[in-house]
Amino acid sequence: MLRPRRSARSRSCIVVGRERAFAESGHTPDCSLAKHLASDNTPCLAGRYQRALADLPPLAEQTVALKEYPDHHDAELVLKLYELRREEVMRESRTQLIAKFLPTSFEDVIAVTKGDHPLNAAFRQCTSFWEMTYAMARHGVMHADFMLESNGEGLLIFSRIEPWLAEYRAAMNPIAFRNAEWVAKETEMGRMISDRFRKRMQAHLDAAKAAQA
To answer: How far from 190 is each of 23, 80, 137, 165, 197, CA to CA, in Å?
Structure first.
């Protein structure tokens, strides 16, 4: 039985939804659906996709009701996140990225996004994981400070990108690391953790600069 062909409008909504999911995780897919649409003789859909992403609200305009107190559901999610971090491939990716991803320039950050970079897979896996985790706090699914007490590692990675965040967004994705930025700036625990990691990153940059002098 043949399935009915979707209208142009419904296909546009599906595409925007998929692309937004990539965007919220901090990444742009390797093969952009917008480009596919444009090459598929449907430029109007590509235009709708671009307009839909442009209509995303600024980070400061958070309107979701956040959780005031953690409950047993938060505890279950935190324990689940711990289980996921212990998965063999995830653990190896985390170890590699924390030990070896030490950028000193925007070029170093962009390099890891290339498919042939040895840390590319680890970068994509870890940053996606932490963006999904922090999205649960930003959207009110989890109590943010409770979650961050045991899940601050993503802010360590974010601190290594933050000095060039504007450039990264201009080059890669306008809302990259949107969720990490939110927890780093809008939560008490996130501000405390991020302040510590920023000091480490600044010391790393100062040492690199001194070594070049």
So the answer is: 22, 20, 11, 17, 10
- Residue 123's contacts (CB-CB under 8 Å, 6 or more residues apart) are 97, 101, 112, 113, 117
CB distance 133 to 81 below 8 Å: yes
What are the tens digits of pLDDT across the range 63-77? Answer: 567 888 899 999 999
Cβ atoms of 132 and 180 within 8 Å: the answer is no
Q: By 3-state DSSP, what share of the chain in percent is helix, strand and coil, each rounded to 5?
A: 70, 0, 30
Q: How far apart are CA 181 and CA 155, in angstroms?
A: 8
What is the per-residue pLDDT across 83-142, written as a single tens digit (0 to 9) for each? Answer: 999 999 999 999 999 999 999 999 999 999 999 999 999 999 999 999 999 999 999 999
Nearest to 21 by CA among 155, 142, 128: 128
Global pTM exceeds 0.70: yes
CA distance linking residue 120 with residue 167, whole number of Å: 19
| Cα–Cα distance for residue pair 153/192, rounded to 1 Å | 13
